[in-house]
Amino acid sequence: MTTRLMLGEAARAAGYRLVVREEVGSTMEEARRALQQGEPGQLWIVARSQNAGRGRHGRQWTSPPGNLYASLLLVDPCEPVRAPQLGFVAGLALHDAAAKVTGLNDPRLGLKWPNDLLIDGAKCSGLLLEGESGAGRFAVVAGLGINIASCAQGTPYPASFLKAHAPQATIEAALAALSDAWAARFATWQSGGGFAAIRQAWLERAAFLGQTITIRPAEGAVTGVFSGIDATGRLLLETAAGPRQFDAGDLFFGQPPLDEPRA
Hints:
It is built from 5 helices and 12 strands. By secondary structure, it is of the alpha+beta class. The strands form 2 sheets. The chain has a 7-stranded mixed β-sheet with strand order 1-2-3-7-6-5-4, with helices on both faces. Helix 3 packs across helix 4, helix 3 packs across helix 5 and helix 4 crosses helix 5. The radius of gyration is 18 Å and the shape is globular.
């Protein structure tokens, strides 16, 4: 028997709504379709499974049943220039939700720039943030996936899932915790604290801070010491040639695998 999926109490009180599908191509595409049909936003779309999920840079995202596949549609949440900050808001919500569901916390839980949640250094969740403009509206779709019952195999980085650390973890508990955590973190971001408060909270949970990492932007790999993120969320790297800032790129602890393709 399939258990009913519900948003958390705080999320419902804040006006968020939920649509549940058994199987879709992609929850992000479902969110876009809802936007085109006039959806006003604050809408979570969750699927039991996806057959055309995708991650960053158009990479395929495997979506077997048993994990959480969700997209959150926000309409006119901010000026477009501030939208990338929502990725850090979502990352904190993922961290909060995993901590509540598993009972784990720092340093076992960590956030890998720009968008992954790690348990013991292994990826167990990710997010994809995309903006949509049209008809006088600006919308953001945040796609969030949490490995609960399984994880991808043969990846160039370690991967894990919640049940490997907390057998009691469920999709239902994860969705309730995630939706409540998002509502709280988003409210903080919208308040006077703004991104400064989100940035500080994110840095307190940052994986590999102060350690040697390799970042792979489109133009090639750069290795240095991860020193933080700036006031806009760019990664700060201390290299042998001096400080560098990065807007995007894949991050690896130490040196990346030799066969990992460039971003």
